Amino acid sequence: MSRHHELHRLHRVGWLRAAVLGANDGIVSTASLIIGVAAAAGTRDSILVAGVAGLVAGAMSMAAGEYVSVSSQADAEAADLARERSELAEDVLGEHAELAGIYRARGLDVPTADTVATQLMAKDALGAHARDELGISDFSTARPIQAALSSAAAFTVGAALPLALAVFVPVSQLVVIIAIASLVFLALLGGVGARAGGASIGKPMLRVTFWGAIAMLLTAAIGHLVGGVVA
Fold this sequence. Notes:
Layout: H1 13-39, H2 44-90, H3 92-105, H4 110-132, H5 144-168, H6 174-196, H7 202-230
Helix pairs in contact: 1-2, 1-5, 1-6, 1-7, 2-3, 2-4, 2-5, 3-4, 5-6, 6-7
């Protein structure tokens, strides 16, 4: 008898979201910063200083932002679980009826819903309510440190790509080459992120390249205008 295997990738959602966001932001913000300074007629030294400063500041900002936001989610989850634990201790019959009602709403008949609620609560009452009432499960639980490290590391890798090009590309060609290369990097990132999540790659690639192009175009225009005024 053959066993049926299914490959699901929802368990990757936490670190994958943070990693894709970090890498995307690293590419877009650093490339845009480099292009803006270059468009303002900056020297290679000023371009590299701005790029390195943007990489370090951006990585730390991403890590701090992810940690704070995901910690807030974790705090909310912990508070909900504490409240549910207290309700189970005070009114187990009411909680049983509530869980059975959830299963009835999903399509089970009354006897089956009651039996399922009874058996699941006998094994792990808090886990059953966390999963089916609150929507909290092991793969979706907030992990602040994992999200912060993934985001910071991904930002650093993403930012390093346009920054490395800025070291070698002639300043006169920097804006065009960095822009084209960064759009290619973004398209690849969109494809890799979609593939890792099991989704089609077309729309994610188009989405990240479109917004990346808008960001670089705007910073190039601002850099050109500011450079002209300063000069």
